[in-house]
Amino acid sequence: MKLHRLTLPVAAAFGLVSAVALAANTLKVGAVFGLSGAQSTYGEESINGMEMALDDLKAKDPALASKITVVKEDEKSNPIDAALAVKKVLNVDKVDLVFGSVASSNTLAMGSAVIEAGKVQVTPASTNPEVTKKGDAVFRTCFIDPFQGSVLADFAVHRLNKKKAAILLDHKSDYSKGLAEAFTVAFKAAGGEVVANESYEAGKKDFKTQLTKIRAKHPEVLLVPGYYQEVGLIMKQAQQMGFKVTLLGGDGWDSPTLYELAGADAVKGNYFSTHFAPDDKDPRVQKFVKDYTARFHKAPGAMSASSYDGILVVADAFKRAGSNDPAALKKALSATKGFVGVAGTLSINAQRDAVKPAVILKTEGNKAVFEAKIEPGQANKSH
Amino acid sequence: MSEFLQFLINGLAVGSMYALIALGYTMVYGIIQLINFAHGEFMMMGAFVGAFTLNRLQGTPLAVALVISMLAAGLLAVLVELVAYRPLRRQPKIFVLTAAIAVSVLLQNLGRIVFGSSAVSFPAQFPQGSIGLESLGVWVEYSQLFVLGLSLVLMAALWLIVHKTKIGAAMRATSQDIDAARLMGINTNFVISFTFFIGASLAGAVGVFYGMQYSVDPLMGVQPGLAAFVAAVLGGIGSLPGAMIGGLLIGIIENLVAGYLSSTYQGAITFVLLILVLSIKPTGLLGRMAPVKV
C-alpha cells in the first residue's frame, strides 16, 4: 500500500510542475507560411528572416531566446491549406502563438481557428485591413493597404505628375482588391481619374485581351496590385504589345522572380511600394543585408525584413508579458511603441495594426532601388 | 472592329493550345472512357523538360527541345497508364477516375519537389516582336503565329495517324469495341499505351508553347487542363474534330467575354459553358450518343 501513499504527493508534485511549466514563461510559436505554391519565395524569405532574428536574439538576450521554440508549417499558398495548417499547429503542436502568413487571403483563413483556440496570431506582412478585424487576438507588424494605396496614389499624382490611371487586379485576391480600392479613393481625392478597371484570375497566364482594352483608354499609369508571378507576365506582355505605360504596384511585386519572368527590358522604370529598401543607407539595414546575404546566399526581400522585425516584436511582447498567457500577450503586443526594426520604427495602434513608414522602390533590370520613403501621416496630409 | 479582331487573334492563339490539350482528353476518353484528369500535368512535365533542356543545355534548338518534351510527356503518360490505370481497368469507372485525380495531385507535388515551386521562364529562343496590320490596328505576335501554325500542323499529323495508318485503324477499332478488337487480333494494350503517348505528347508540346510565351510552374497545368476538358465536352467527348473546334471556341469565347463583358467573368465563362452544354446537348457539338453496352 506504500504505492498508494506515494501516488498522491507524486501526482501533486506533477501538478505543480505542470502548473509551473504553464507559467514558467516559455513561448511556443507556430510559424505558418507558404513554403510551396505561387507565393513560395515569400514563405522562404519569411522563414529565413524569422530564423535569423531568433539567432540574433540568442546573442543579445540568450535567456529570452532559450524560452522561445518554433514549429514550421506549410500553408501551400492557398487559403484551404492555410486553414488546415493552422489547425495542425494549434491542435497537434499546441502552440501559444501563430506567426504568419503573408498573403492576406491565407492569413484571413487562419484567424477564426486561432480565435476559437483562444490563442494569439501575429502576421508580419498581410496588409489587407480585414485581417485584424477578425478579432482582438489578431495583430500585424506591417502597414495596411489603405496606407499603401494612398502612398501609391500620392506618388503617382505628386511625384510622377500622372492624372489618368488604369487598374488591372486579381479578382480572387483580397489583397489585390483592397489595394486597388484604397488606391482609387486616394487617387480620385488627389484629383486623378481611373479610366479602366480590368481583372484577371491568378493562375492565368495570358493577359493580352485585358491589356488591349486598357491600352484603348490611354492611361498614364497602370496599377497592378497583384503578386509577382502574374505581374512579371503582365509586364512582359505589355512590352510585347508595344504598350508603353508606367506600372505601379504594392509589396506583392517584391520578389526576384519578377525580374526573371518579365525580363530586364520589360521590368525597368516601374514603381512599387513595400516595407523595406535593401539599399537604405541606415547602418542597421546595411548590417541586416550583409548578414542575411552571407547566411542565405541571396539578398533579403521585404518579407525577410518584415518577418525579422515581426518575430522580434513578438519576443519583445512576450518578455514584457512575462508568460505565454494569451491575455497578457495581447496586452503586451498592444503596448508596443517605437519598436526599432530593420524595416522602420513601428508602433501598434488600437486596431492592432502597425503604424510605420513605407518605401517606394523603382525597378531596374534585375533589382529595385530606393526612390522615396513615406512616413505614416505624410501620405494622408495631401487629401 | 480592330478591337474585335485583336480579341479574336488572342483567343485563337490561346484556343489552339486548349485544342491540342483537349485532343488528348478526347482520345483517351474515346478509347477507355476515362476522363484523365492528370492530363494537364503531362503538359506541365513537358514544359519543365523543355525549360530544363533549353536552360541547362545552352544552344539546344527549340525544335529539338520540343521533340524531347513531347517524348518525355508521352513516355510519362505511358508509365502512368501502366502503373495507375491498367490495374484498375476492369473495375468500375469511378476507380480509374479517382486514380487520375490522385495522379494529378501526385505529379503536381512531384513537380514542386523536383523543379521547385517558383515560376521559371525559358530563354528568349524566339524572335520577339509582332506583325502590325496598321490599317486594321491589329497586332499579331510572332510567337502567336508560331503556336497557331504549329498547332495546325500537329492536328493534321494526328488526323493522318488516326485515319491513314495501321495503328490508327487499330485505335479506331479499339474505341468502337475493345473486346471485338482484341478478338480480331489487335493488341489493345499496345493501342491504349500508344493513345496515351500521342495525347500526352501533344500536351507536352503545349507545355513548351506555354513556357515560350509565359512561364513554367508546377501548377501551370491546372487552368488550361480544366479549360481543355470543357473544350472536349463542348466539342463532343470522343470526337477529334470536336476537340479541335471546342478548344478554339473556348479560347475565343474567353477572350470575347473578357473584351466585351468583363474580364472578371473570363474564368467563369468556361464553366457556364460546361453547364449549358451538359444541360442542353450533353453529347456536345459533334459527339454521338454512345449506345449503352449490355
Task: Provide the fold topology.
The complex is a heterodimer of chains A (383) and B (294).
Chain A: H1 2-23, E1 27-33, H2 40-60, H3 62-66, E2 68-74, H4 79-91, E3 97-99, H5 104-116, E4 120-123, H6 130-133, E5 138-140, H7 145-159, E6 164-170, H8 174-189, E7 193-200, H9 208-216, E8 221-223, H10 228-240, E9 246-249, H11 256-262, H12 264-267, E10 271-274, H13 283-296, H14 302-321, H15 326-334, E11 339-341, E12 344-348, E13 354-355, E14 358-363, E15 368-374, H16 378-381
Parallel strand pairs in A: 1-2, 1-3, 3-4, 4-5, 6-7, 6-8, 8-9, 9-10
Antiparallel strand pairs in A: 10-14, 11-12, 12-13, 14-15
Helix pairs in contact in A: 2-14, 4-5, 7-8, 10-11, 14-15
Chain B: H1 2-32, H2 39-56, H3 62-85, H4 93-115, E1 130-133, E2 138-141, H5 142-164, H6 166-176, H7 178-183, H8 188-213, H9 222-235, H10 240-261, H11 266-280
Antiparallel strand pairs in B: 1-2
Helix pairs in contact in B: 1-5, 1-8, 1-9, 1-10, 2-3, 2-4, 2-8, 2-9, 3-8, 5-6, 5-8, 6-8, 9-10, 9-11, 10-11
What does this structure look like?
Chain A has helices spanning 2-23, 40-60, 62-66, 79-91, 104-116, 130-133, 145-159, 174-189, 208-216, 228-240, 256-262, 264-267, 283-296, 302-321, 326-334, 378-381; strands spanning 27-33, 68-74, 97-99, 120-123, 138-140, 164-170, 193-200, 221-223, 246-249, 271-274, 339-341, 344-348, 354-355, 358-363, 368-374. With 383 residues, chain A is α/β, with parallel strands linked by helices. In chain A, the strands form three sheets. Chain A has a seven-stranded mixed β-sheet, with helices on both faces. Chain A has a five-stranded parallel β-sheet with strand order 2-1-3-4-5, sandwiched between helices. In chain A, strand 3 (97-99), helix 5 (104-116) and strand 4 (120-123) form a beta-alpha-beta unit. The mean pLDDT of chain B is 89. Chain B is built from eleven helices and two strands. Chain B has helices spanning 2-32, 39-56, 62-85, 93-115, 142-164, 166-176, 178-183, 188-213, 222-235, 240-261, 266-280, and strands spanning 130-133, 138-141. Chain B is mainly alpha-helical and 294 residues long. Chain B has a single domain, classed as ABC transporter involved in vitamin B12 uptake, BtuC (Orthogonal Bundle), CATH 1.10.3470. Chain B has a two-stranded antiparallel sheet.
